[in-house]
């Protein structure tokens, strides 16, 4: 360090002295001489002493300068000498003698300029720290001293221990180190950007890339990647690439085992540079909703010939319900078949696997299970080959019948199983051994063979069926082809283990701010003796109930940075311990924390400018720090330096709040430079670089000074808003305007944007090229001319940043018009600065500003035309520029005021207006329906100017929950004629609805009420349910019928003119009587009213008649114009119908249609109106029929759709439909809404347009609803029928009802 400082000082002294330094030195000497001359005249002894001191100081300074110059000259010659020679090893390596488990540090000193590239070798082989165990080698090169540090832990791992444990071994190591040097050919590349956390998902690839500031030098291309300190190599699953300015690591098909801290190392002359980032691998979507995540880190332990021990780690995501077990699967390498290893789920994350085959290679995977389902399988374990681990060390003997095993004990005791272990017989024969295990309840001498059917080939055996609470003793017998040994000595009593409980959660979970998208979570580790496999971290946004998993691979530390959070949102965190028993309970929640950057000291101010200058004062301005440290800048400290002096002087003791300051008491004609530092709550930041030298000389130029503080807001695609401050020095006249210049970054060509000067201190710059980087400056203008330009603005990329928010317009619940802005980023001290027309804050008498969290709202107290204009907002105290603006137009204001009026004067919405119903007893019900009302809603019912109240004769019902209002009038009479008004009020909302019940409307209701009242009274005694009516039977007999409680019939066999007359039926008892009459004295028209039927060709108008003969004459009229049959009109008749067919109807076919029937004596007319809604519905059906052309005609069953049919068991059922369509439709049959599969008894036959389904030997299971669904590109249609199957002799329900 001393050598480096001395060389730096010498170089500084030997460099050429600038004119400023010469001027400063000459001025100092002259000033000292003047001060000495002035003080001679006083003749004071103190003055003489001071003069002597000054003279001696000057002499000492001159001597020191001469020595420094001489030293610098020698150092310069020395450096030039080294540069012309190859590197020299000045102090070589020496031999070291070290003890085992000790570290060693090898050092040597070299002389070279420039610094060389150094490579270490051991026994002629290059030492590469990446290929060695982590931390084994550490290489440094500082100021010519080369150091190779070999870690003591690496020695103990590399050097085997001696056989004799009590003796120490002296290891002599002679290291021959050589250095190959080469001159630097270029500047070393460094990281251009920091690595950021990456989020991936299981079975998906991810790529981690880093970029460099320049091309990598040749020796820097040997880039290394690490995951959690483990060196990563290029393989089929992970690909490592290195380009000139980019290095990347791609993982194909990620697993949760790939999660962790990834580090990239780039070699440098002094060692290496590295960066790290955490890669998160989330669970893949489960096949079953609610299933847990997949387990991870499946590993094999204690591998023997036919068994092994398998362990894994529980997943972080339980799927919403607890995980109660795991299923294990195995697969032989070379096959794709996964075989289950356990029938019942394993409760813990560790389990023995038995019944494996010696010599085969296996892989294992695990699935978790909860009440919702089974998870995806874990990543397969590394392949393991089943073999005898003691085979190579075993000593064979000539023994034939084996000896019994020894040391039978339980090597592992769990709740579900016990693993027995023992030692092989010693000595043992050459023949392969197998073992038989026997058990006995402790205290008894009754032994039971456990594995009689399957012998054990390894000295391990797992038992899964032990009774909890009981103690057992075990013994083992050896067996080979010559026989079975005696049993071994019994083991100690063994009891199945208790339930393995999860570890308790950690305590003291604390969250700290880190960055604008991350939080650092810290917790206390568990107590000693509780060794978890790691910890899972979870987070939840305040206000929600769903916990999100942070890491899917347990972390072993007690501190973790949680990235990927939403800026400005509030979160809480918790931690869970992970062990063999699974994932433990959740820790207590941390205190809520808002995601914002941690407060740090600000960076240095920059870009100092001289804004005005007097004889003895200067006004200095500067730009704010680029990084404010996450807090408000509390002020600035300014220092000044006179060019003729050596030291800096403080300008202010207290912080300056503004970035403009007038420095006084300066010497006219002197040159000064300035520097500053900013301060916030975290402390004082870095000191800036010195400004340029400014001469203290009064400005007298007629042009204005430079504007300052040029900044930009509202950066969007192709445009931005530019702001600046007016110059402090105005020259000979006021500033009349400004010119704005622009320059692309990297260019020195400035272009003037505005042809005419702008008078304001802001301007919207448009028509910029999106994505390009620009720099702006401003020049002021007065009557004397254009002044000097301002300091250029910061570079800005003209594009809309992702997540940029705009100002939102709306009306609140109170009816006030507001404009709101939500910022994606802010700090605790951030404020929202609103401005109108960029001239300052809006008038507080007209607006009210409310800030809540990261959202600010400006409310117009009384919105009017005075509020029109452009409103802008900025967020302070953040590093990135966040701002927006909106111009409130007259149209927008009118719409908002309309909405405001509706909110302030709301109306209760009407669903159904006044309705009149006449009830069965002749009561009149007046009712209306509105939207649902609150329980506090009020009703005032006004009748002819007077409010009604509920009485027995006028009952008022008000159902607020359903919005129903009804008035029931018992005896409706002339007193109830008038106007009814319902006045409603629900909070601010109100409305009223009026019903005028007068004149014809009242008379109609009164008559209907009286008729129903009479009918109801009639029905209280004996009465006719059906009045007299007649019909002609198939035998041409006239049948008169009426119905009381039974049907009464009168049959007229031959109906003649003598039978004409009035027929009367009377029913009576002691309660009264009822009469019904039928007049058969007049001629009756048999034709029914006209009907309209849409068809595929047009519209058909027809009348059904009971009979039609040729002597009857029919004539059709349209709007009183007689119609004749033609191309578009077809008329005709059948025995039971008279019809008119309109082909391809148009709007001209609307109107009234009349059918005139002449029976030889009288003319009868039937009319229908084919216009309005009737015509529209007919045309819609016509178009549907035209495009679809699908119709159904059941044949086998004489029925229509939606009809019930009966059939008896073991009969054959046929359902037939006729269909048509162009293109021919697709056909699907359904039974009870399930597709019919045609096999066995079900058959389908399609012949042309006839589709038949046949069911042979029907049974009770064939009962149900059958439907046919046909579809083509124009539409679809469905026909259905219900079939009921009964036994022979059983009367169907339908027949019993008839």
UniProtKB/TrEMBL annotation:
Its main location: cytoplasm. Keywords: Cytoplasm, Immunoglobulin domain, Repeat. Residues 294-389, 404-502, 505-598, 604-699, 706-803 form the Fibronectin type-III domain. The keyword Transcription does not apply. SUPFAM superfamilies: Fibronectin type III (SSF49265), Immunoglobulin (SSF48726). It is found in: Cytoplasm. InterPro entries: FN3_dom, FN3_sf, Ig-like_dom, Ig-like_dom_sf, Ig-like_fold, Ig_I-set, Ig_sub, Ig_sub2. One of its GO terms (cellular component) is M band. One of its GO terms (biological process) is sarcomere organization. This is Myomesin 3. It comes from Chelonoidis abingdonii. The gene is MYOM3.
């Amino acid at each position: 360090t001393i050598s480096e400082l001395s060389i730096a000082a010498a170089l500084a002294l030997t460099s050429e002295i600038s004119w400023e330094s010469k001027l400063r030195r000459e001025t100092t000497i002259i000033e000292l001489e003047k001060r000495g001359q002035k003080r001679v005249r006083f003749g004071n002894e103190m003055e003489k002493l001071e003069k002597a001191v000054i003279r001696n100081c000057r002499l000492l300074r001159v001597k020191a300068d001469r020595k420094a110059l001489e030293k610098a000259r020698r150092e310069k010659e020395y450096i030039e000498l080294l540069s012309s020679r190859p590197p020299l090893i000045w102090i070589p390596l020496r031999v070291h003698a070290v003890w085992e488990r000790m570290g060693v540090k090898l050092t040597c000193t070299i002389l070279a300029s420039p610094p060389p590239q150094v490579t270490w070798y051991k026994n002629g082989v290059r030492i590469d720290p990446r290929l060695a165990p982590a931390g084994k080698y550490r290489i440094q090169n500082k100021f010519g001293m080369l150091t190779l540090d070999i870690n003591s832990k690496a020695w103990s791992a590399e050097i085997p221990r001696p056989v004799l444990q009590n003796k120490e071994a002296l290891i002599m190591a002679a290291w021959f180190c050589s250095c190959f040097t080469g001159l630097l050919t270029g500047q070393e590349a460094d990281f251009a950007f920091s690595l950021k956390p990456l989020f991936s998902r299981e079975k998906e690839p991810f790529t981690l890339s880093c970029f460099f500031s320049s091309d990598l030098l040749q020796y820097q291309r040997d880039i290394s990647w690490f995951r959690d300190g483990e060196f990563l190599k290029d393989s089929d699953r992970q690909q490592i690439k290195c380009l000139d300015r980019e290095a990347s690591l791609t993982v194909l098909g990620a697993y949760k085992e790939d999660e962790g801290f990834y580090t990239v190392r780039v070699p440098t002359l002094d060692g290496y540079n590295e960066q790290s980032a955490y890669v998160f691998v989330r669970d893949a979507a489960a096949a079953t909703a609610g299933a847990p995540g997949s387990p991870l880190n499946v590993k094999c332990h204690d591998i023997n010939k036919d068994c092994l021990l398998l362990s894994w780690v529980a997943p972080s995501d339980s799927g919403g319900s607890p995980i109660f077990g795991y299923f294990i699967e195995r697969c032989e390498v070379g096959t794709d078949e996964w075989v289950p290893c356990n029938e019942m789920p394993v409760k813990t994350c560790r389990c023995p696997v038995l019944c494996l085959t010696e010599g085969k290679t296996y892989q294992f995977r695990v699935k978790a299970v909860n009440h919702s389902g089974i998870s995806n399988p874990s990543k397969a374990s590394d392949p393991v080959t089943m073999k005898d681990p003691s085979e190579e060390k075993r000593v064979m003997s000539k023994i034939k019948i084996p000896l019994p095993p020894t040391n039978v004990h339980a090597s592992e005791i769990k709740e579900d199983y016990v693993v027995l272990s023992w030692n092989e017989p010693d000595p043992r024969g050459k023949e392969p051994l197998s073992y038989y295990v026997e058990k006995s309840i402790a205290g008894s001498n009754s032994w039971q063979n456990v594995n009689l059917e399957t012998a054990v080939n390894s000295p391990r055996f797992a038992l899964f069926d032990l009774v909890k609470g009981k103690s057992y003793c075990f013994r083992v017998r050896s067996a080979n082809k010559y026989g079975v040994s005696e049993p071994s000595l019994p083991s100690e009593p063994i009891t199945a283990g208790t339930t393995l409980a999860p570890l308790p959660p950690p305590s003291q979970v604390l969250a700290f701010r880190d960055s604008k998208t991350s939080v650092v979570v810290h917790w206390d580790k568990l107590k000693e003796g509780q060794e978890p496999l790691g910890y899972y971290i979870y987070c939840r946004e305040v206000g929600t109930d769903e916990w999100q998993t942070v890491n899917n691979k347990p972390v072993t530390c007690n501190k973790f940075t949680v990235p990927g959070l939403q800026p400005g949102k509030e979160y809480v965190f918790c931690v869970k311990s992970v062990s063999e028993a699974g994932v433990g309970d959740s820790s207590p929640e941390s205190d809520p924390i808002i995601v914002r950057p941690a407060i740090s000291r600000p960076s240095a101010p920059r870009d100092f400018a001289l804004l005005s200058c007097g004889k003895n004062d200067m006004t200095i301005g500067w730009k704010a720090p680029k990084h404010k440290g996450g807090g408000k800048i509390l002020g600035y400290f300014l220092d000044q330096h006179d060019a003729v002096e050596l030291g800096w002087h403080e300008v202010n003791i207290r912080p300056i709040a503004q970035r403009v300051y007038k420095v006084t008491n300066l010497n006219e004609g002197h040159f000064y430079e300035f520097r500053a530092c900013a301060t916030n709550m975290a402390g004082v930041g870095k000191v800036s670089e010195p400004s340029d030298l400014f001469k203290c000389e009064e400005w007298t130029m007629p042009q204005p000074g430079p504007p300052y503080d040029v900044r930009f807001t509202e950066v969007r695609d192709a445009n931005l808003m530019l702001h600046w401050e007016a110059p402090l020095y105005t020259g000979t006249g006021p500033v009349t305007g400004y010119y704005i210049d622009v320059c692309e970054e990297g260019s020195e060509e400035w272009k003037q944007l505005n042809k005419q000067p702008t008078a304001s201190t802001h301007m919207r710059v448009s028509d910029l090229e999106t994505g390009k980087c620009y720099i702006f400056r401003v020049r002021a203008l007065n009557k004397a001319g254009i002044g000097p330009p301002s300091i250029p603005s910061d570079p800005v990329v003209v594009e809309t940043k992702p997540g940029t928010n705009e100002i939102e317009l709306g009306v609140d619940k109170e009816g006030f018009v507001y404009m709101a802005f939500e910022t994606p980023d802010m700090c605790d001290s951030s404020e929202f600065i609103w401005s109108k027309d960029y001239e300052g804050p809006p008038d507080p008498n007209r607006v009210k500003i409310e800030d809540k969290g990261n959202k600010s709202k400006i409310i117009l107290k009384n919105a009017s035309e005075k509020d029109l204009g452009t409103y802008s907002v900025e967020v302070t105290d953040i590093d990135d520029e966040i701002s927006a603006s909106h111009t409130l137009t007259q149209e927008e204001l009118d719409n908002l005021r309309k909405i405001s009026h509706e909110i302030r004067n709301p109306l209760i919405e009407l669903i159904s207006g006044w309705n009149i119903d006449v009830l069965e007893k002749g009561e009149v019900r007046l009712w209306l329906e509105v939207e649902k009302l609150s329980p506090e809603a009020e009703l005032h019912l006004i009748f002819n100017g007077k409010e009604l109240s509920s009485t027995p004769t006028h009952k008022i019902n008000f159902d607020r929950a359903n919005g129903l209002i009804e008035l029931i009038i018992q005896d409706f009479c002339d007193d109830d004629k008038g106007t009814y008004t319902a006045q409603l009020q629900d909070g601010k909302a109100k409305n009223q609805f009026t019903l005028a019940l007068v004149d014809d409307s009242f008379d109609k209701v009164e008559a209907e009420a009286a008729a129903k009242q009479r009918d109801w009274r009639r029905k209280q005694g004996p009465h006719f349910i059906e009045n007299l009516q007649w019909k002609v039977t198939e035998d041409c007999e006239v049948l008169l019928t009426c119905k009381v409680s039974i049907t009464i019939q009168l049959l007229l066999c031959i109906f003649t003119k003598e039978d004409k007359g009035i027929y009367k039926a009377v029913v009576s008892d002691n309660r009264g009587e009822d009469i019904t009459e039928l007049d058969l004295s007049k001629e009756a028209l048999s034709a029914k009213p006209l009907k309209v039927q849409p068809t595929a060709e047009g519209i058909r108008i027809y009348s059904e008649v009971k009979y039609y003969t040729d002597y009857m004459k029919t004539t059709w009229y349209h709007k009183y114009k007689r119609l004749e049959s033609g191309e578009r009109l077809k008329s005709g008749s059948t025995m039971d119908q008279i019809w008119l067919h309109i082909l391809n109807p148009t709007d001209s076919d609307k109107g009234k249609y009349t059918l005139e029937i002449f029976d030889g004596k009288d003319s009868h007319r039937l009319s229908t109106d084919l216009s309005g809604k009737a015509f529209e519905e007919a045309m819609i059906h016509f178009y549907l029929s035209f495009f679809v052309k699908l119709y159904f005609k059941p044949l086998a069953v004489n029925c229509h759709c939606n009809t019930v049919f009966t059939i008896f068991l073991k009969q054959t059922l046929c359902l037939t439909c006729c269909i048509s369509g162009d293109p021919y439709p697709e056909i699907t049959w359904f039974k009870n809404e399930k597709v019919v599969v045609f096999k066995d008894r079900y058959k389908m036959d399609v012949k042309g347009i006839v589709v038949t389904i046949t069911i042979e030997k029907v049974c009770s299971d064939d009962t149900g609803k059958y439907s046919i669904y046909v579809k083509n590109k124009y539409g679809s249609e469905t026909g259905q029928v219900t079939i009921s199957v009964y036994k022979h002799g059983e009367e169907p329900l339908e027949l019993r009802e008839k």
